[in-house]
Design brief:
The protein has 4 helices and 4 strands, in the order H-E-E-E-H-H-E-H. By secondary structure, it is α+β, with helices and mostly antiparallel strands. The protein has a single domain, classed as Nucleotidyltransferase, domain 5. Helix 3 runs parallel beside helix 4. The radius of gyration is 15 Å and the shape is globular.
């Protein structure tokens, strides 16, 4: 893939998977795309309306409401809290369903925990 300027082979592979997935999914105002990004230290989730190009809600482990509840928890438990936080923000905007975008990451571990946390908080996938 000549258009990918990423030299790290792992990152390049993730970008390739991400582009393939994004060809198939798109968020709307009624059913936004719940995109998850995972770094080694943090986890972020945002609900995106691709039609209007607007982020409807976002949460991360750096937010004050999540950060206060992370004492003594491992990364997967924190990711579950992030999923619940973004679900709560979406429900305040009367959004009940989302399309899950794993962003090229494997659906396992912290990415899966975000999805589980959002489902337990009332979002439909």
């Amino acid at each position: 893939m000549a258009h990918l300027k990423i030299r790290n082979p792992k990152a390049r592979s993730r970008q390739r998977r991400k582009y393939g997935q994004r060809k198939r999914i798109s968020g709307t105002a009624e059913r936004p795309r719940l995109s998850v990004f995972r770094s080694n230290a943090h986890i972020y989730a945002q609900a995106i309306d691709d039609v209007n190009r607007v982020t409807l809600a976002a949460a991360s482990d750096l937010d004050a409401e999540v950060k206060g509840a992370t004492d003594g928890k491992d990364k997967s438990d924190v990711a579950k809290l992030v999923g619940a936080a973004v679900a709560k923000k979406l429900q305040e905007k009367q959004v009940k369903a989302v399309i899950f975008d794993r962003n090229g990451f494997i659906y396992h571990g912290r990415v899966k925990a975000v999805a589980e946390g959002a489902r337990e908080a009332g979002l439909e996938f």
